[in-house]
């Protein structure tokens, strides 16, 4: 390939200026990038008499073909493309030289082509003039026009080539401006999409906060102010337009009984640069109280703590429902205790009747000792002491029954689990004897003081004891043995084990024993073991069931020992 200057022709300056003016006008009237490319290619085809024109762009290490035009028997055909240049159709050495030098070049392809030329284009094409015209603006190559003419067609003068160079510069400016406009339009479209997405996100966040009663906030430590969401303002009864408040304004909303502990925890978290997790109440202007939970995460900038961001959640409704649930559970537990008391009516009557009969006997004996010719005051005193002891015993039984059936709130105190167990055994002793059950008691735990609610724990023991007795009611081919034992483990927990020699627990019901409303009894409610399980867990212990070898079942529950 040899590059050379074109021969000079006799074209006039006026013709050139006319062409230039018409071309400039057409370029200025192009409405978009596609129209601009079509206008440029059409001008070159018409003015240069070319048979093929390619618009190329140098991008990184490759050459991109953007558009092409060619004359056919049916007329001018122009198409827009976006692909890498195919060097079978283009003279790669010529185009690479223009990219490097930014100079207009042409080559007579045909006579100068050699069979050993490495470019596939020069081995395939002959008899044409290849003109490569750079479009440059501000010393930057914007595009390259590759123009292909037949070798025998019109020749150009230097003056005409200068016109082409001016047109190329004009085209470069138009292409650059159009590309910039496309970029601006794309940026604007992206900005609009982001704005719409942001508005949608803000709307969704506000709706989500409103539905979940959750407000968001950002605590700017340097100014000690909180930037709050709309729902945050609604929860705290703040004016929606005042989205920025001082930390002191926030602290003033906290319930007086909670303020010190909450602020201490917040300041400690800031000092340690850790997350904030608090539960507190706020006192509203109308005197109502809201229960809230707050969470905050530290935000660091330049290696230091700068902000906290977080949420506040109104859990008043949840708190009320939990209170209602606890009250319902307490009522249900009380009804279960009363139901159990009803099953033990004969046993309770027998237990109360015993001290009453003893009181009557001792009273009669005392009167006889007193009415003797010589009253035996010592015997009278002994009878009165026995009456007092039996009266106290009867009173304790009645008090235990009243305690079990009263509707009182749970009260944790230090108590001896052995004493509570013995009280339950006293109540159920007659039932044990009536059902012909042999009781084995092994209270081996050396430490037996725990912290708990005596009523709830007695309910657990009474329920397990009655279940064991009922489980053995149908047993006739072996002795009915009820074994109650206690032991400790690592001086951390005390274990109470209730064993029976009944039919045992089948595998199909073992995993459902502690489910609410699940029962194997004909007239059972299915709440006894579920309540026991809940009570034991509330005391920090565990309740489990297992098969006993060789027969029967074992129920074991544990309670943490009271710390000294």
List the helices and strands and how they pair.
Layout: H1 13-29, H2 33-48, E1 52-59, E2 62-72, E3 75-84, H3 92-101, E4 105-109, H4 120-124, E5 128-137, E6 140-150, H5 158-212, E7 214-220, E8 225-228, H6 230-235, E9 244-246, H7 247-253, H8 256-272, E10 276-283, E11 289-301, E12 304-314, H9 316-343, H10 345-370, H11 377-405, E13 413-416, H12 417-434, E14 438-443, E15 449-452, H13 454-471, E16 481-489, E17 493-500, H14 507-510, H15 528-538, E18 543-547, E19 553-560
Parallel strand pairs: 14-16
Antiparallel strand pairs: 1-2, 1-6, 2-3, 4-5, 5-6, 7-8, 7-12, 8-9, 10-11, 11-12, 13-15, 16-17, 17-19, 18-19
Helix pairs in contact: 1-2, 1-5, 2-5, 10-11, 10-12, 12-13, 13-15
